[in-house]
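Worked example

This section walks through a single chain of length 178. The input is the sequence exactly as stored; nothing has been trimmed or padded.
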Amino acid sequence: MAAADPEQAGNACTVDENIAAILRLENDAVRTRSLPVRVADAITSVIGRMSFAAAHIAAIAAWIAVNTRTVPALPPFDSYPFPLLCLILSTESVLLAVFVLMKQNRMSYLSDRRNHLDLQINLLTEREVTRLLQITDRVARHLGVESGLDEEHVRELSAVTEVDKLMGALDDKLAEPS
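Given that input, the structure is written out below as tokens.
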């Protein structure tokens, strides 16, 4: 049996560490939720299921059946056009919409947080790669080795990226949705 490649073992360790870090961040986000957020999450997890829709359909069908005298054993209590049913469903709709919006706001916040982390890591990586290109270019010059790239290209890649100018160029090219 061949020995494991040390580089692959190192990558597996790094992957495991990254997964552990991501899980820690996600668990922290879940653990630090306020009571209203936990309630909204619980409600939206229930209402987002097919069983919830099926239960609603069954309850509404039963309500209509009772109140249209389809079930003779039960007296009607909300005659057509079912004002009580409309009131209950309207109130429920407003409340469910609020809970869904709370959940969406939280998910949007977490997504923005992850995007900020991605941007930070990308900026750090860009700086590190730029520095490595600068060092590699100096070493190549010192050793008299030709890189095979034209000097302008090497200079452009080795230059520090100015994030503000890059964002300005993106803003000029991309139209913000109205």
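What to look for: The chain has one domain: 14-47+81-173.
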